[in-house]
Amino acid sequence: MPRLEVRDVTMQFPAVRALDGVSLSFELGEVHGVVGENGAGKSTLMRILSGLQRPTSGQVLVDGSVVELHGVRHALSLGIAMIHQELDVIDDLTVAENVFLGSEPKRFGLVDRKAMNERTAELLRRVGAAFPPQTSVASLSIAGKQLVEIAKALSHEARALIMDEPTAVLSERETESLFRLIGELRAQGVTVIYISHRLAEVEQLCDRVTVLRDGALVCTVDRGALSLAEMADRMVGRTLGDMFPPKGEPQTTGVTLRASGAKVEGWVKDATVEVRAGEVVGIAGLVGSGRTELCEAIVGLRRLSEGTVTLGGDRAMFSSPGQAMRQGVAYVSEDRKGAGLVMEMNCFENASLPSLRTIARPLVDRGAERAMFEKWRTKLDVRVGDPKAPVLYLSGGNQQKIAIAKWLETAPRVLILDEPTRGVDVGAKREIYALVRQLANEGLACIVVSSELTEIVGLCDRVFVMREGRTVGELVGSAVTEEGIMALAAGVGAA
Amino acid sequence: MKRLGSFFQTYGVVVALVVLIAVAAIVEGGTFLSAINLRNIVNQNAAVGIIAVGMTLVIMTGGIDLSVGSAVALSAAVGIKVLNGQIAGGTAETTAVAMALAVIVVIGVAIGALNGALITLGRVAPFIATLGGLVAFRSLAKVVSEGGQITAQGSTFERLGQTGIPIPGTSTPAGNPVEITWGIGLFVLVALAFGFVLRRTAYGRHAVAVGANEKAALYSGINPQRVRMWAYVLMGLCVGLASVVQGMRFGAVAPQQTGIFYELYAIAAVVIGGTSLSGGKGRVWGTVVGVMILAVITNLLILMNVPSEWQDFVQGVIILVAVLIQRGQGQRP
Prior knowledge:
heterodimer, A: six-stranded mixed sheet, B: mainly alpha, two-stranded antiparallel sheet
């Protein structure tokens, strides 16, 4: 008998049918991957399974009996817990307080802290966390917070755990320990439903994989039945071909942007990177190695306590992104929702935001503003129904294209892209890779920061590797390999 | 049905105002609809209206200004003091009035700049920074007026507050045509100017971005501190202009009463008008409608002889209801 099952589930929203007659079962003690592009229906399916949403039609079965889930608490009481991508922990509370939030053990009507901490300690041992129950959650890394969420799910005797892109914010090492934990949970009979964009991960971890496309079930296969390329093809419904465009010729022109001996208090100890016009330079390294902070310092978002930045040979120490922009240096943040775009604003307003002054004389020329977005809409193939709707409703890929377009509009000489494909589906990823290469070919100096090694290796002509705040090596041309980068990033082997 | 819903979400306040006016017209027909009564409603609320328009900008950028009422008292007190001093010193009355008006506006702007500096450079939370002003400026106003009321000398100052552009075909009980006062004119002008700035200029867009997501604004090359600073300076300009209107209307300042609760009326009007208290979304025309809703309610309560003790209670309930309706709208996706 499957632990969890959906039968002929359909979810009709006013504008779109998010799920269309999907039937699917999740067995006891299996790790079941669910993959699909953005908008394929993964999130809707998970929301239905975790009680956040009721389907328009169709049934949900838990342990073989039909149930109507009315709310997250109800689902939890049946042993179904969801770990969201945006973790739900509360920073101001301790680990134990988070784990037992809303179900605190009581003694004489008061919270029994001793029992709460003891039970939390046991759960933390089970998930392999090294911190005590009294730790403040604010002081934990993202990986630590994730463990707290899993412990919280286990405190409810969760027997089905839904994880939404859990590794998106983890370093390689943290990912490995998460996978070990998932393996242990499986051995204990817990069903893990694992949603991810990263096909290689799904292949490595999952016993079975289900592919969704446009709200419909494409197939459910056992591990190894499909190659990664075949899986990607099924997700997009067409043959993708090569993910990466051909690389460029080595550039011999002078260095466009160079940061040398850079130091950012608390993050970067000693970093040197440079980029020439026409090339794509990668900055690789584990999460927390100071990549993002280095880039933020270059555009004036953080203070450089030591070191210099030069642009075209001239000193260029920027104190704000506005100043960097006026000198032709643009930074596309890794945090698209929090810093890259204003989610409440529409496509026109987001695309024109950095360059608004150029079309305000002094009133904003709305025709010019529209033309601005339309130009990039065509060039970057941004797919939007109504450009006057908030960008909040767009897919990750289309949001990212607008986040890039708004900077291209400022006609930069240097474009720094931080995690340009995070939360972006396979099809749009490929388009973004092609775009970056095309921009480089047109003479732009591009820097790409990424945690995805395949992306760095596939896209970049030259790679700087960072470890614990220092650039520990530079790889060029054919020396750019996953093994080479990992050896430097993890500090093993010769640099 | 869905279109009807979104119509109400956008224009619900206008519908509310129209209904309110219809009710007032039915209940108190002739008196309410008389030209002089309608003129008075707007005239009595012009000062609060001008402040509410400025408050729309401040709230849109995610801030708040609690010091406006006290700032009105302080700037008007100093202005009238200057006026009386000049007249006593033998300056021509028109020159003295011009100087007083200039002083009032300059003090308003200076107070705005001070608030802005505390909030941007001093990194004090807007609520706290302007709460200090709320208390301190009123105290200063009392110091300036030595505890009592100051009345403007000469007739020019007060006459400016009573006169304006006559409306043909209307008549006061005394038989003169009803005049649209300069104060009303200033309110209209300020509302139009701010509406334009917020909707159509780069600054207005930057203000929306800062209010909606300050980090994203910073990352987009905008200087959020400068945007905020200007919001408070422009708020100060509105305070100065409101103080001019207020001072002229009474020809006097009583620091115990002048501008009292203006910050609350202004914030209430902004919220009723559909501007989000959490920033990033705002509309000046909504605020103007909000001011008029509060104004018509007050007028209606007076015409219906509701005891004055009860009037603020009714206002309070109306404000709460408006905020609850707004919150309901915000939750709908």
